[in-house]
Amino acid sequence: MKNKIKIALRLGALLMGSISAVSHANIKLEHHIIVAIPPELTIVHAEPFNSQLECLALNIYREAGGEPYEGKVAVAQVTMNRVAHPAYPKDICNVVHQKKYVRNHAVCQFSWYCMKHRPVDEMNYALCREIARKVMFSGYRMRKFKDALYFHTVAVKPVWRNSFDMIGRTGHHLFYRPKSRKGEILLASAD
């Protein structure tokens, strides 16, 4: 299947298929489906999708590799929520790699990015990559973390946490959203 998609993308061709259905009277009906691949979606553009997927998967792995499935999804969702938010870069890798300098010291949005990296556990990374794929391409989300833009481990108490509304905990992480404005109601519903 993957090779067929690559070929179709390379050629910018039309994919054609048919669906057959049987009515109550046992009459075979055939419907043709034509799916046009937009010219802007070519093999040349597939590589950025792969690098974005890898950035998201690595962020999930480094931030929540030891967390339960829900924790991994929540970290992926925070990353995607930042991409969608006007205050953050519009691309996953730029969000993950975002840092600022305070007195010549790098401060990363995701702490792992500023630290040395330990070897990758292939099975865990494969799960993180699958979660990244679901979140990125299938729109998989948990309503509980709909507005989450920030999180931290329960082992620390960052000063910034009081500036936001905590909306939930999963595993060893607490998740936050921007504080609601006066009169505005923000609901964090559980799944």
Topology overview:
Layout: H1 2-11, E1 14-22, E2 28-36, H2 43-64, H3 69-84, H4 92-96, E3 99-102, E4 105-108, H5 122-137, E5 150-153, E6 164-170, E7 173-178
Antiparallel strand pairs: 1-2, 3-4, 5-7, 6-7
Description of the structure:
The protein has helices at residues 2-11, 43-64, 69-84, 92-96, 122-137, and strands at residues 14-22, 28-36, 99-102, 105-108, 150-153, 164-170, 173-178. It is α+β, with helices and mostly antiparallel strands. It folds into 2 domains: 2-41, no CATH class; 45-142, Cell wall hydrolase SleB, domain 1 (Arc Repressor Mutant, subunit A), CATH 1.10.10. The strands form 3 sheets. A 3-stranded antiparallel β-sheet has the order 5-7-6. Strands 1-2 form a two-stranded antiparallel ribbon. The protein has a two-stranded antiparallel sheet with strand order 3-4. It starts with a helix and ends in a 13-residue tail after the last strand. Mean pLDDT is 75; it is low at 1-37 and 183-191.
Instruction: Just give the CATH class of the largest domain.
Output: Mainly Alpha
CATH superfamily of the largest domain: Cell wall hydrolase SleB, domain 1
Task: Quote the distance from N terminus to C terminus.
Answer: 33 Å
Molecular shape: globular
Return the domain count.
Answer: 2
Oligomerization state of this entry? Answer: single chain
Structural class: alpha+beta
By DSSP (H or I, 4+ residues per run), the number of helices equals: 5
For the largest sheet, list the strands in their spatial order: 5-7-6
Helical percent range?
A: 25-40%
Order of helices and strands: HEEHHHEEHEEE
In total, the number of strands is 7
**CATH architectural name of the largest domain:** Orthogonal Bundle
Average pLDDT works out at 75
Main sheet attributes: strand count, strand direction, barrel closure: 3 strands, antiparallel
Strand content: 15-25%
Whole-number radius of gyration?
A: 21 Å
CATH topology of the largest domain: the name is Arc Repressor Mutant, subunit A
Model regions low in confidence, pLDDT < 50 over at least 5 residues? 1-37, 183-191
